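Saturday, quiet lab. Running sequence design on the structure tokens for the scaffold JK sent over.
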């Protein structure tokens, strides 16, 4: 009898049972040497599974038998590189053609409109029988679903019917969508719908940006021959200005069941134009010397109630509802210690703006940090609260003596609470 099978729930998406979306498994299998049981049929290399539940939801995942155990991985949308859930281990066994797993939990850690109020699934037991003649797995799952009701988690009984068949679905890959023109400090991340197999150390993807070529080697980590979810392009500094960027994925990659990659395998976009060295650090000449993506800079004339930090003008940047960036260039003296910006955060909530980073980079090196502002407490326009002018510093001593690209970045998938924007002024380099 085979025992000590493990089930690892990695990523998931819950979708309506009648929505008609085809499942994309996130994890398939390599060879399942010895994955069978005494007196029962061996499981196939990978089984696509759908759970149809009593709460009118469908949970889809892929079962992977292996000599050391079985892995269960619910799938997530391959276009979203952000993991949606946290999960737990599930002990189990496979004997005489019957698979038993449980208990295990699936807990959601980031919001999704697809999930609505559903926060978690707690499975007490999964039991299914594999039919070698039809190559199908059929059984049941029992447990409870946890839903959010007026800020309280309320459990409800859940039962599900399980159906499975061998994996024949090709893996999907789609880089993070980047519009043109794009900041020179951003590169796409590769979102795979499931692990892919390629020779260890072989080139998984290649990014070309004018004269710059960056390769992404395949690395299976502790499980050679496998990678999963999001793959990052190793950008050390920044890309050239005003060039076409192309990211291509190796067509030889397959999933763990041998299914070849499905298109698309490449993405192309343009980088922003060179803004030139900044000669307008206090916005007195409007937005000259700054290049934006997404939200534009609005130049504001100071008033007695809302004065500028330096001079008579400042810039307002409102990226809270979109992916946005502000880029400018500085020449750092050899004695440079830090780049300082005066920032006034405005918000209808307790935080001025979440998820904004500040970076300085050459073509080969970068320093970066999160934009940190105090909670807004002062009275601002339109009923908002404001922080007042606050100096935000980025340590750049390691880049002293270089020309650097400075970027304020609010990337995709970073939310904020309520209405929020930033006012910018008085950009300077300090050596003390």
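Result came back. Writing it out in full:
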């Amino acid at each position: 009898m085979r025992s000590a099978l493990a089930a690892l729930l990695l990523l998931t998406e819950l979708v309506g049972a009648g929505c008609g979306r085809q499942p994309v498994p996130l994890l398939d299998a390599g060879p399942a040497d010895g994955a069978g049981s005494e007196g029962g049929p061996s499981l196939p290399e990978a089984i696509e599974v759908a759970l149809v539940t009593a709460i009118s939801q469908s949970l889809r995942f892929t079962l992977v038998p292996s000599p050391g155990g079985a892995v269960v991985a619910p799938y997530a949308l391959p276009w979203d590189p952000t993991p949606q859930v946290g999960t737990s281990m599930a002990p189990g066994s496979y004997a005489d053609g019957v698979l038993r797993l449980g208990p295990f939990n699936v807990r959601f850690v980031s919001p999704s409109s697809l999930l609505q109020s559903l926060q978690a699934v707690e499975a007490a037991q999964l039991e299914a029988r594999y039919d070698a003649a039809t190559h199908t797995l059929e059984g049941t799952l029992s447990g409870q679903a946890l839903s959010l009701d007026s800020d309280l988690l309320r459990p409800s009984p859940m039962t599900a019917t399980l159906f499975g068949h061998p994996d024949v679905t090709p893996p999907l890959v789609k880089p993070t969508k980047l519009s043109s023109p794009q900041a020179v400090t951003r590169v796409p991340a590769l979102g795979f719908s499931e692990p892919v197999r390629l020779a260890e150390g072989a080139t998984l993807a290649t990014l070309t940006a004018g004269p710059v070529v960056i390769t992404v080697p395949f690395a299976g980590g502790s499980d050679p021959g496998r990678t999963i979810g999001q793959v990052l392009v190793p950008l050390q500094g920044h890309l050239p200005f005003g060039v076409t960027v192309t990211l291509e994925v190796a067509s030889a990659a397959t999933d763990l069941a041998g299914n070849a990659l499905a298109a698309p395998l490449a993405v192309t976009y343009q980088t922003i134009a060179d803004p030139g060295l900044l000669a307008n650090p206090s916005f007195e000449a409007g937005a000259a010397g700054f290049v934006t993506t997404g939200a534009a800079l609005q130049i504001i004339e100071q008033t007695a109630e809302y004065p500028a930090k330096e001079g008579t003008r400042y810039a307002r940047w409102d990226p809270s509802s979109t992916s946005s960036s502000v880029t400018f260039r500085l020449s750092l003296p050899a004695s440079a210690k830090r780049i300082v910006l005066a920032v006034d955060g405005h918000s209808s909530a307790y935080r001025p703006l979440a998820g904004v980073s500040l970076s300085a980079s050459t073509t080969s090196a970068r320093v970066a940090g999160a934009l940190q502002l105090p909670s807004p407490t002062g009275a601002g326009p339109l009923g908002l609260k404001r922080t007042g002018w606050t100096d935000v510093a980025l340590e750049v001593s390691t880049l002293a003596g270089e020309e650097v690209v400075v970027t304020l970045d609010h990337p995709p998938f970073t939310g904020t609470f309520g209405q929020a924007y930033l006012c910018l002024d008085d950009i300077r380099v300090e050596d003390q």
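Notes for JK: The longest strand covers residues 152-166. Residues 26 and 219 are 17 Å apart (CA to CA). Ask whether to fix the surface positions before the next round.
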